[in-house]
Every structure is written in structure tokens, then in C-alpha cells.
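Troubleshooting entry. The earlier prediction with shikimate-3-phosphate gave an output that would not parse, so I re-checked the input for stray whitespace and re-submitted. Clean input:
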Amino acid sequence: MPFIGEFTPPGDKSVSHRLVLMSLIAEGEMLVQGLSDCEDVRTSLNIFKALGGKCEAEAKGLRFYGLGGKWAPPENLELPCNNSGTTIRLLMGLLAGKPGRYILDGDLQLRRRPMERVAEPLRLMGAKIETTLGRPPVQIEGQSLVGIEYKFSEASAQLKSAVLLAGLSAQGPTRVSEPHASRDHTERLIGYFGGDIEVQNLEMTVKPSRLTLRKFFVTPGDPSSAAFFLVAAAIVPGSRVTAQNLLLSRGRSGFLRVLDRMGAMVSLTMVSDTPEPTGDVTVTYNGPLVGTEVGAEDIPSLIDEVPILALAATKAQGRTVFRDVHELRVKETDRLMSIRHQLGALGARLNSEGDDLVIDGPTSFMLPGELDSGADHRLAMTLSVALKAAGAKVPILGRESIAVSYPEFDEHLAKLWRPAP
Ligand code: S3P
């Protein structure tokens, strides 16, 4: 059965986190429409509230009252970051310069993820941060900070954002650079909320400044969620899927450029440009895809879409290579390994050569007794699409993790996967 129809993906998770967490330091009020309701963003919201932040549900959305960085300095306040890497890393930057002592912890998956790469530049700014053998729990004792110049060796939006957010309350300018462009929501939102930030290619400079929330904010749709159905449309004959109001900044739309290169029919109608480019995207099945090479410089713009693009590659003719995807090893799971094992269990031919992921297609799937997502939400959704595309039913262990980023996934799946009219 093909994937057919239109849907509105949930509000973007990365933007939602930033709206919530930046309300900790910004002043003013803002009505937010379409904030993501996923577990990860709820985690950020709970922390906003734990520090005294107020938000109220209204007919049109959630009204945030900015805390302006003013909360009573706590003594060892425990802030549970659950499964959310974005929450813990952005908070490290936000809290490093605020009075009080904080303990940031997470679930077992988060407790395996590296935090020194955030702590290190923050310490150069004067922060007092201790990790637990490089991982959560992380203890922060707020200090006054000074601006630094820092060259990240990884292209990571979470690391860059932590330092930029810390820079807002540091003395003097903070300049960071990254080797390739990662998502730029923090930069855009700092500017949109009146902060002093300058961006030149891969280098950003933030100066100490106050942020003020805007009256109204419409959260653009999450491309990383929409990708599951847009890629499904590219691989299942007879499909045509439209995602409405999708966030389409360059740092998030890499998967659409790759799908286009692989031969899918991708059309965009831009709807708005500020503070993020958004538009409607239609992907129409256009015959079998062909393999492609995705260079290291393009990986940050599709880092969360590698699992679903890997599925597309198993259906494409010829070889697809994702260069230098080592960052996948430190996501919710070792995603490089889980992609290989789980798509491999379906009969796909995947290998990792050093840090490259190499896939030879096309393969028609055989069905194992069960699949195991390792409770990695993006793997669980990739495997669900793979099974639907094969018209098969196989239990997926850890499937409930989908709610981490996309609680509406099953509803959208039921709406879009249906017989051709
Ligand atoms: C995110 C950045 C990405 C991405 C994650 C969300 C963010 O990680 O994988 O899901 O909101 O900043 P990187 O830090 O690797 O860019």
C-alpha cells in the first residue's frame, strides 16, 4: 500500500526546546502556537517550571512568562533531563553563569552520552562544572563568566548553543566557530529576541545582551519527524505525501536534497521566512531511487535523518555512502551500530568502513521474528516505516520510545498509509 495524503508534522523539537529554555533568561511574554508535545520538550518545560517559570494554556497555544534569568539561587537543585541531550547541554550553558548549584541528570541512555565536550569550553569561560567520568550527572556551581574564542572540532548545534547561551551573560564577546554548518536555531532566536549576535559563515560572535520574548510565535513543523513519511513516499510505489508548514532552513533540510539527488520528486512551496524559513513539501514516488554519496560537510544538516535515509538507501539501486558519521555513535544509542544491526536483520547489506556507513541496494526484505530499536525513537520509527513498506507485521522492541520525539507518529501513519484512491 502506498503512503498518500497531507499532514501537519508536530512543532519542531529543536526550536521548541529553545523557546522553552530561552524563556528562562528572556524577559516579556510570548504566546507559542504548536510547541512540540513530545517527551523531550516536556522535560525542558518541567525544568522551566522547576526554576519558577510560568506558562499557561490558552485557546491558541501556551503563554510563556519570561523569567529574565531571575530565580532564587538554589542549593543542589536536581533537574532531571530524562532522555534529552538538547535539554542537558543547553542548560549547562544557560546555568553556568547563574548563581546557585544545580545537578543535571538523565536516564540510562543520557548517562552514557559525553558531556565534557560542553563542559570544556564553559570552563574556559570560568564555569565550575563537574561531570561524572565525562557523563551525567553534571554538577554546576554558577559563576560569573568571561567571553572566549573557541573552535569546535565537531559540528554540533548542542555544543555551539551551550557556549552562545553562556556568552549572553559573560563579560566581553564570545566567538565560536564550527567545522561544518550545524542547525542555527539558537543564533536565529538570539537575534529574533533582540540579542547581540553576528554570524559570518561558520563563525558566530555573541555579546552580552538581554533577550525579550516576542508576542506571538508559530513553531514550524519538525522536518526530522516529517522525514519518516516523506522518505516513505520516495520508496513505496504510488505514494505522494505533503508535509505542511515544515521548517526548511539549510541546516535541517539536507535529507530533502539527498532524496532529490537519489531521484525522488521533491517540490517545495515556501510560506514564510522569519525567524525560520518554512514551507510545504511534497514528495512523490518517481521510480526506484539510485544510490548517492553524502559528504561529511552535509551530515550535520541531516544527522537525525540518517536512519530513515539509510532505509531509503537499502531500496536504492547501487551504493550509498554516508561519510564520517561518527557522531551517530553518541546519540540515544550507538546509532551507527543499531542501523547496521536492525536493517541488517531485515536482510539489507550495510557496512561501516571506519566512520563511513556504506549501503548496497536494492534489497528486498526478509522478516525476522522481531526487531529491536534499543529504545531509540528514530530507529523505532525507521523500522516501523520499513515494515509498512514491506507490508509486514513484526514486533519492534522499544517502540514506545517514539513518544520521545513524535507522539503523533501512529496517528499520522494510520492517516497516510492507505490504499490508493
Ligand atoms: C539538536 C542537535 C543535534 C540533533 C539533536 C538535536 C539540537 O545534535 O542530533 O537531535 O536541538 O541542537 P548535534 O549536537 O549533534 O548537532
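This one parsed fine. The radius of gyration is 21 Å.
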